[in-house]
């Protein structure tokens, strides 16, 4: 009954292969799920050497049914599309960008076919992706295209702090223009459903303002009056437990204090900055990261996708020092969502049987 979780390797020139080996070799991941890496066996074997986990078995397979899913073994859908001897670790390249794209596309295909219960993505590099002729701004857009999804949003999570976004990868000027009632209510609905999928019965949703002090009744902007407040009022009319707009300089502290189960942020950095302030911890004395935590989740898809909340870290790639905590948390969230959907499906089937 352990959910089968497909884990993409990310950009093979980045830290994805190394943290994948660390996560699956050093932690009891196989106790709660069946982890299946989508990547390249040769790259993973090289990463195992780099991080000093030479005894781990790298099991190359073609289909999920062939996996062993046990401690001491990493099962890999072997795409065979990267040669570690010619790959420049820590460098942007079209070869690595294309490989990363193919890993994601394969994972989506497996999930859409029901062969894996959820997907987890390691970081890809947007420049490498575009060099390969794959013109996407990130994972979210790839997932949206290959699942045929039009209404989606990003959630970031670190412990009890969860944030969803009205807009993400657009210029700040455009982000302000995208603060519209219809989009805000759409994101509120998606956020509520995501919380319920995680087992939160009556989610409390806080909605951030766009302008300083929520515009001070129109003094610093009218988006709150014309777009955000109407969206919040409509959500309440639908029975969604929603509050806002709340000034962005206080709402995240309130959420950490337990006031809200999720915060609706108006644009990319408004939501990303507070998550990374609490999740990314740098040790100044030892000159290293003690924690790089946080999970990126795409909501609104027909399949489950969670991700690390950091980049390819080319400056650390090949050193064996990269931190695997964010990947472990992404796997935890994938398991949580997979189990939630399984329970929801079981409940629906039981209800149908009772009616019949």
Describe this structure in words.
It is a single chain. With 356 residues, the protein is α/β, with parallel strands linked by helices. The protein has two domains: 202 residues, Isopropylmalate Dehydrogenase (3-Layer(aba) Sandwich); 150 residues, Isopropylmalate Dehydrogenase. The protein has eleven helices and 14 strands. A twelve-stranded mixed beta sheet has the order 3-4-2-1-5-14-13-6-7-10-8-9, sandwiched between helices. The protein has a two-stranded antiparallel sheet with strand order 11-12. α1 crosses α2, α3 crosses α5 and α7 crosses α8.
Short account of what is shown:
With 356 residues, the protein is α/β, with parallel strands linked by helices.
Architecture blueprint of SSEs:
Layout lengths: L3 E5 L7 H11 L7 E6 L1 H10 L6 E5 L11 E6 L15 H19 L5 E4 L4 H6 L7 H9 L5 E6 L2 E5 L6 H6 L3 H17 L7 E4 L14 H15 L4 E5 L1 H9 L5 E4 L2 H12 E4 L4 E5 L2 E5 L5 E4 L16 H31 L1
Parallel strand pairs: 1-2, 1-5, 2-4, 3-4, 5-14, 7-10, 8-9, 8-10
Antiparallel strand pairs: 6-7, 6-13, 11-12, 13-14
Helix pairs in contact: 1-2, 3-5, 7-8
Labels describing this entry:
Isopropylmalate Dehydrogenase, two-stranded antiparallel ribbon, 4-hydroxythreonine-4-phosphate dehydrogenase activity, 4-hydroxythreonine-4-phosphate dehydrogenase PdxA, 356 residues, PdxA_fam, NAD, 12-stranded mixed β-sheet, metal-binding, alpha/beta
Number of domains: 2
Strand percentage lies at 15-25%
Element-level helix/strand string: EHEHEEHEHHEEHHEHEHEHEEEEH
Q: What is the CATH-assigned architecture of the largest domain?
A: 3-Layer(aba) Sandwich
Measured as a percent range, the helix fraction is 40-55%
User: If you average the pLDDT, what whole number results?
Assistant: 92
Q: Which class of secondary structure composition applies to the elements? A: alpha/beta
Low-confidence stretches: none
Oligomeric category? single chain
What would you give as the CATH superfamily of the largest domain? Answer: Isopropylmalate Dehydrogenase
Termini separation: 27 Å
CATH topology of the largest domain: Isopropylmalate Dehydrogenase
Radius of gyration, Cα only, in angstroms? 21 Å
| CATH classification, class level of the largest domain | Alpha Beta
DSSP strand tally: 14
Protein name: 4-hydroxythreonine-4-phosphate dehydrogenase PdxA
EC number: 1.1.1.262
Cofactor: a divalent metal cation
Subunit structure: Homodimer.
């Amino acid at each position: 009954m352990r959910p089968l979780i497909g884990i993409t390797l990310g950009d093979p020139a980045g830290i994805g292969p190394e943290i994948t080996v660390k996560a699956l070799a050093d932690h009891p991941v196989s106790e709660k799920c069946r982890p299946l890496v989508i990547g390249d066996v040769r790259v993973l074997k090289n990463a195992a050497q780099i991080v000093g986990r030479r005894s781990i078995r790298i099991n190359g397979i073609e289909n999920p049914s062939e996996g062993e899913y046990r401690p001491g073994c990493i099962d890999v859908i072997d795409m065979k599309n990267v040669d570690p001897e010619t790959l420049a670790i820590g460098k942007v390249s079209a070869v690595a960008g294309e490989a990363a794209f193919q890993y994601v596309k394969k994972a989506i295909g497996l999930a859409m076919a029901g062969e894996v219960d959820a997907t987890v993505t390691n970081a890809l590099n947007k420049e490498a992706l575009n060099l390969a002729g794959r013109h996407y701004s990130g994972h979210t857009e790839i997932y949206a295209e290959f699942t045929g999804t039009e209404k989606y949003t990003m959630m970031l999570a670190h412990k009890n702090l969860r944030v969803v976004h009205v807009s993400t990868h657009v210029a700040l000027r455009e982000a302000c223009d995208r603060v519209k009632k219809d989009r805000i209510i759409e994101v509120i609905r998606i956020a509520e459903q995501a919380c319920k999928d995680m087992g939160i019965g009556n989610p409390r949703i806080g909605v951030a303002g766009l302008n300083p002090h929520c515009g001070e009744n129109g003094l610093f902007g009218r988006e709150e009056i014309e777009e955000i407040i109407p969206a919040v009022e409509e959500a309440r009319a639908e029975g969604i437990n929603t509050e806002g707009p709340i000034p962005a300089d206080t709402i995240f502290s309130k959420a950490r204090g337990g006031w809200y189960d999720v915060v609706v942020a108006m644009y990319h950095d408004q939501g990303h900055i507070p998550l990374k302030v609490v999740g990314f911890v740098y040790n100044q004395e030892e000159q290293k990261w003690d924690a790089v935590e946080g999970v990126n989740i795409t909501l609104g898809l027909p399949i489950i996708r969670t991700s690390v909340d950091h980049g390819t870290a080319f400056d650390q790639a090949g050193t064996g020092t990269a931190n695997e905590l964010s990947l472990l948390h992404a796997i935890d969230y994938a398991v949580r969502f997979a189990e939630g959907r399984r329970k929801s499906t079981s409940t629906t089937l039981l209800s149908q049987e009772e009616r019949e």
